[in-house]
Amino acid sequence: MRMERKIAGGVACVMAAAMMLAGCGGPTGTGSNGASGGSASPVAKPLDLSKLETSVASTPVDNQRQDMMSFTNGTNVTIVAVSLNYRQKSDVTDDQRQAAFADLRQAVTMIEDSDYEELKTEPLKCTSNLIVKPGATSENGECTIGGWKAIGDFTPLMEPDTMSVAYLKGTNTIGKATYDFVNKKTTLDKAESKANQWGDDKLTKTLPKPESTIIGGSVSDTSVGYSVYGTTHDQFAAYVEQCKQKGFTADGEGDNYASMKGSNGSDLSVHYFPDDEKMTINLHTAD
After folding, report:
1. Alpha helices in 29-155 (DSSP H)
2. Tens of pLDDT, residues 32-58
3. How many helices (H) and strands (E) does the chain have?
């Protein structure tokens, strides 16, 4: 099996996704994990991230075991994204590292020996970009170590350090908070982001607007791009049909994608990512 390297974005990447700084967002509707972005959860009392119960375990994925994260949202807010950051225990031995990294070393043969020695000192990072309402559970959040999928089981080497969370704050605002596992303290970030960033430009107006709580993206004179988290496959399929009703003609379709042409020659692509419960919308003007 060809192993694909995925750069671990940590806090910056996850929060960019959650706060739509890189064209990400999420709609209304309930995903396969029971999560929903249908209504915001205003902060009625102090946010306590100790009530967000996380778990990381070695799980069979694509015929191999790798660390995956699950969590139950015991807070009073809707969670938009989670980045769980571990650190290696101070008493970990070289023999323990050698054993824990053996499966990853065997699966990814492209790692140079010098890089492998450095990799064995890296922490574990686990992320989720699913929208999870209070009381709901999210599963199969991907874990990485040094930018690689965490193939094997690294939990015996690790202890939790910090957790960064993006959450719905009010009806159209995303807030951020960090939990310090050492001091058992939740710290709220002053930075906020608009949850629904659907544009009002000429190009965007040619598209049907998804019925979503959270929409994020980017707009230029010649293209627009949006990402919608929390989307089901049925919602993706319905959106493709709405595009056709708006005058777009199918140019190619599959289970999780659709390419279409606008009446003015524009190119539209809509993709669905089931693992992330995410739909992306990209529209470019004619050359």
Report:
1. 94-100, 102-107, 113-119
2. 333 334 444 444 578 999 999 999 999
3. 5, 15
The DSSP bridge partners found for residue 142 are 68
The amino acid present at 191, given as its one-letter code, is A
End-to-end CA distance of the chain: 39
In this structure, the strands spanning 249-253 and 257-261 are antiparallel
Q: For residues 29 and 212, what is the distance between their CA atoms, to the nearest angstrom?
A: 8
Q: Which residues contact 222 (CB under 8 A, 6 or more apart)?
A: 203, 284, 285
> By C-alpha distance, which of 188, 172, 158 is closest to 47?
188
Please report whether residue 172 resides in a domain.
yes
Residue 249 · residue 204 · CB < 8 Å? no
Q: Can you give the residue range of the structural domain that contains 55?
A: 49-194
Q: pLDDT (tens digit, 9 = 90+) per residue, 108-135?
A: 988 888 889 999 999 999 999 999 999 9
- Do 186 and 59 sit in the same domain of this protein? yes
Helix H segments across 60-171?
94-100, 102-107, 113-119
Tokens 């539209």 found at: 268
The domain boundary residue, chosen from 135, 167, 194 = 194
Residue 266 · residue 286 · CB < 8 Å:
yes
